[in-house]
Amino acid sequence: MTTPPPQGQNPFAQQGQQPYGQPQGQAPYPPQPGFPQQPTAPYGAVPPAPPSRKVSFKMIKNVVIVLAVVGAGIAAFISSQDDANTAAVGDCMHRGSTDNNNPDLEVVECSSTKAQYVVLAKVKGDFSAISAETKCSEKAKDFQYSYTETGDGSNFLLCLKDYAK
Length: 165
Hints:
Elements: H1 57-79, E1 92-95, E2 105-108, E3 117-124, H2 129-139, E4 145-149, E5 156-162
């Protein structure tokens, strides 16, 4: 009967080598030519990254068109906020054009140097030049000018007078 060797020692191992003649720190089997090297991770190979999307001319064109339409809509909304159709009694107005057929009235602050007229009355409806004068005489006795707007779905009459600062 033989006694087992002391723990941690192998009587058959040579100094600096692992059992079976493999040098310390190397894999037990070297990779063979013609066979792919197996991954060392326990979960298998990492899937390839998905292909990146190429930006096409068509996509850029569509984005530009959408931005242009949205920008035009916002600009139209902002510019219409001071039109004559938003005027109320007591608002001050500025005439942007000398053309009597299209005076381009816009609402301005009464403290502004642009303030030229004050709205005395606003009446909804479709009026001719004669009926506008008559209606303004009924609604505002001291009016000086009448302005009618038709054709955009909101027909109305403004009775105005000069704004005294």
